[in-house]
TrEMBL record:
Enzyme class: hydrolase
The protein's name: Agmatinase
Domain of life: Bacteria
Keywords, sorted A to Z: Hydrolase, Metal-binding
CDD domains per record: Agmatinase-like_2
Organism lineage: Bacteria, Bacillati, Bacillota, Bacilli, Bacillales
Gene Ontology terms for molecular function: agmatinase activity
Family affiliation: Belongs to the arginase family. Agmatinase subfamily.
Organism from which the protein derives: Fictibacillus barbaricus
PANTHER family: ARGINASE/AGMATINASE (PTHR11358), GUANIDINO ACID HYDROLASE, MITOCHONDRIAL (PTHR11358:SF26)
NCBIfam families: agmatinase (TIGR01230)
EC number: 3.5.3.11
Pfam families tied to this protein: Arginase
Amino acid sequence: MRFDEAYSGNVFILSKPDYKTADAVLYGMPMDWTVSFRPGSRFGPARIREASLGLEEYSPYMDKHLEEVNYFDAGDIPLPFGNPQRSLDMIEEYVSTLLNDNKFPLGMGGEHLVTWPVFKALKQKYDDFVVIHIDAHADLREQYEGEVLSHSTPIRKVCDLIGAENVYSFGIRSGMREEFEFAKTSGMHMYKFDVAEPLKEVLPTLKGRNVYVTIDIDVLDPSAAPGTGTAEAGGITSKELLEAIQLIAKADINIIGADLVEVAPIYDHSEQTPIAASKFLREILLGWVK
């Protein structure tokens, strides 16, 4: 897996050419081997990069320009098609290298299971960290139809890894009854339907802590992001997610990495989903990379 070479395909807008001097590394995790409804998120990272070329390089939200952030687009991890466990092992190894090199890891999915090995890599570096999870789905299942490796399980897995009390989920509007019962009894923090308003209450309580943020694009209403594998009606708007990104940027916390997952461009011929995703990543780069 390459780190030092420039990516030969399309890169995210204004990506710098040098890995060694970069503060942040953008990388793709093109896996959709365990999805329960519609595949296609393995094509998300490439399409997000292409969509980014239409972005303005200046953000009026952050009042910053992408030239002010030193980030390197490393391309996609070459995951073996149809092999979930080997793919997850490769992601964990890759992100561990980024963390050992003191890079801010910013991942693009791929299905949401790709975040699980990132959590495992983070646990090797940080004794204590918090997860902010922004999603339509609880992702608290222990298995899906007998499969423990499923895109419906990563948040349950990280609850077991770092303690449920260190997991904060926002925007949740779908899941099994058992998942919502687990959220109530385990000590984790679940905020249904909304994102920005509960974040305003929660972020001050996380002052000074290490925080990893994982965003599933399906937290948006399907009218704003139809290009995803498991769309759920009743979601938030793009404006609300941008507000949430800004709130996190302004909070007195130590953001140690992030990812944005589940963009499946094949279901969105208008391309509004990868266009929105690329804008969210621009704001993350400008606001979360120190």
